[in-house]
Design goal:
The chain is of the alpha/beta class.
Length: about 325
């Protein structure tokens, strides 16, 4: 028997929420999320959720703080409406890059946000490609970290059939992610060794691996300014790479990132819809968006039926 669930969406990524609802053949619950004149968030769940298994779909993307407050207030509204279980579905967890103390007198903001979500009344969390895996331990409730890799692997196999492919990590920190992808598509691995002089800027120093004549696939979890990927693409092409394509899960793309990537030597920038693509992304020639709605929808369905979620990635 199909489990009874309710899907509630905030304002951060309505298109993805609707696509997940279509996959699950379950309409989004009627929920009003609006602002008062002073920009306070007001939420009203306009249908009965008593005793229901409710999934709140909300990325904490730009504007991150507004969308985070929406999430917390929706969770509180559901808890006070006697929902049986509330799962926070975070396709993009926006504070994940602040997962440690980089210096004295600095916060660990991702832990603070995890506490806020838990105290608001969430019973479990479902998220995608956390920037640091240990963030799962910041939550004192069950947390499932999904991976966009199966979606990307399927796309890579379709696009690069018959080509000599090399997976490239844009920095040393992303080697584990790149190695896992390379293993899935039976490709070799290269690493870009870079040194960052100041936040938001990167300088490519060296390419570890022979990329000459190969189709290089840069893999990362977040693309923000785009500088790292553009510099890496330039360095790879100088080393003789045939072409360079980048795959990233979360397209944060702040400031002039879209224009920077559009004018770069990247053949294509492939992102998912974990963050709702802007108009600039939709019209850019070398951007393409993969939908993660089936992946998240399947994970929601399995969570509701108490089935295995990890088997999605076996």
């Amino acid at each position: 028997m199909k489990p009874s669930i309710k899907l509630v969406a905030g304002n951060s990524n309505r298109q993805l929420a609707e696509a997940i609802a279509d996959y699950l053949e379950t309409p989004l619950a009627v929920c009003q999320v609006k602002r008062f004149a002073d920009m306070e968030v007001f939420v009203e769940i306009q249908e009965n959720v008593r005793g229901e298994d409710v999934f709140v779909i909300q990325s904490t993307s730009y504007p991150a703080n507004d969308h985070l407050m929406e999430l917390l207030i929706i969770i509180d509204a559901l808890r006070r409406s006697s929902a049986r279980r509330v799962t926070a579905v975070l396709p993009y967890f926006g504070y994940a890059r602040q997962d440690r103390k980089p210096g004295p007198r600095t916060p660990i903001s991702s832990k603070l946000v995890a506490n806020l979500i838990t105290r608001a009344g969430a019973d479990r969390v479902l998220t995608l490609d956390l920037h640091a895996g240990q963030i799962q331990g910041f939550f004192d409730i069950p947390t499932d970290n999904l991976y966009a890799a199966p979606v990307m692997v399927r796309d890579i196999k379709e696009r690069f059939a018959g080509e000599e492919v090399m997976v490239v990590s844009p920095d040393v920190g992303g080697v584990v992610r790149a190695r896992a992808l390379a293993k899935r598509i039976d490709a070799q691995l290269a690493i870009v060794d870079k040194r960052r002089e100041r936040p938001g800027e990167s300088e490519v120093m060296n390419i570890i691996g022979d990329v000459k004549g190969r189709c290089c696939i840069l893999i990362d979890d977040i693309v923000d300014s785009g500088g790292t990927l553009c510099n890496a693409a330039e360095a790879l092409l100088k080393q003789g790479a045939k072409e360079v394509t980048a795959y990233c899960t979360h397209g944060v793309l702040s400031g002039g990132a879209v224009a920077r990537i559009a004018s770069s030597r990247l053949k294509e920038m492939v992102i998912t819809d974990s963050i709702q693509p802007t108009e600039a992304v939709r019209v850019a020639q070398n951007f393409r968006v993969l939908s993660i709605a089936p992946l998240i929808g399947e994970a929601i369905g399995r969570t509701a039926s108490e089935s295995s979620v990890s088997s999605l990635f076996d």
